[in-house]
Amino acid sequence: MKIRGDQAAIWGVWGLLIAYGVLQATAWTISGIPFGPLLAMELSAGWIVMILLALLATRGLGRLSDTLEEAEHAHRAKSTEVEQLQMQAAMLDIIARSVDVPLAFQELAQRIARLVPCERVGLALLSDDGTEFQTYTARVQDRERRSRPRPEVVFKADRTVIGAVVKSREPMIISDTQQAMADYLDVNVLRTSGFGSGLVLPLISKGRAVGTLNVVSRATGAFNQRHVDTLMPVAEILAVAHVAQQLQVALARQRTVESMSELTVGIASEINGALQTIIGHCDLLERGYPDTNLQNDLAVVVRQAQRISSLLDKMRAAARERLNEASSLLPGV
Predict the structure, then answer these.
(1) Which distant-in-sequence residues (6+ apart) come within 8 Å of 315 by Cβ?
(2) Tens-digit pLDDT profile for the chain (333 aa)?
(3) What are the residues whose beta carbons fall under 8 Å from the beta carbon of 269, sequence distance 6 or more?
(4) HEC assignment per residue over 269-310
(5) What 3-state class would DSSP assign to 153?
(6) What φ, ψ does residue 135 adopt, rounded to 5°?
(7) Which helix (H) or strand (E) holds 122?
(8) CA distance 209 to 201
(9) Which of 127, 124, 130, 172 has its CA nearest to residue 152?
């Protein structure tokens, strides 16, 4: 058992006092000096003073030890807070350079592992229809060889811990995967891979859960509420970044649809203008040349031109409808 420094100092003070007493008794025995009442009073007074001094020293050492322990706890708390702030600053810097959330997650995995000791860090992102998750894994102890992360396993939202956490929007601590593997498919996979415990936190932005941040350990009972409090700010930043990425993709899609729709409407208007010119000339020819065969041919041309004009109207209506659908698909932030 490891002995604390203050306990060793206290034992040292009393050990010296006992050793001095043994040495003094031995010296008096060997010297043969008579032990009278006056000498007994002097020895008693001396021992009382030494015991009082030892008690004062013990109390002083205890107070000093408590002060040092409090300072050490405060230093550890401050160090943890600084590490969290550094993590958040690094996340903001990476996300400012790229809103690719899986890429940012891969770069930050080792920092996350320094905040919460673990063997692996995982990210699960919910699909647009909310039925399945794409999961990414970062191995924090080995150097990542992939230049870009790719989804490793796709899980359905049903019967999974990540689905339950997204649904409840509350963190979940899995102290022993052996006990939860029968209820959740993803925990079963973790247990099969040799992991004993895990921590799953929801990625929430503006009240909407978009995925989870996961850490796992091969030991059981590796995570507690302190780890939840440490990682929640990280999960919040990842959630905001993911929603921003979704918004950017949706905006790019909307701009593409808008450009195609405007091009379609413009071309349709140009073609329709040319068709109206053709129809007008056919009407003039029909009036100027009363030839039956010519009029029949002109009637065919007019009908086909009107048919094309009707198709162009449908194209313009479809383009406007696609533009409205793209606008409605923009995710909220």
Answers:
(1) 264, 268
(2) 334 555 666 666 667 767 766 666 676 666 665 656 665 665 666 667 667 776 777 777 677 777 777 777 777 766 766 666 666 666 666 555 656 778 778 878 888 888 888 999 999 999 878 889 989 988 776 655 555 666 778 888 888 999 999 999 999 999 999 999 888 999 999 999 999 999 999 999 888 889 999 999 999 999 999 999 888 888 888 888 888 777 776 777 777 777 777 777 778 888 888 888 888 888 888 777 777 887 788 888 888 888 888 888 888 788 777 767 766 655 544
(3) 316
(4) HHHHHHHHHHHHHHHHHHHHCCCHHHHHHHHHHHHHHHHHHH
(5) strand
(6) -110, 145
(7) strand 120-126
(8) 10
(9) 124
SS3 201: strand
Structure tokens at 225: 């509420």
CA dihedral 68, 69, 71, 75 (to 10 degrees): 130
pTM of the model: 0.56
What's the Rg (C-alpha) of the chain? 40
Task: Name residue 204's beta-bridge partners.
Answer: 209
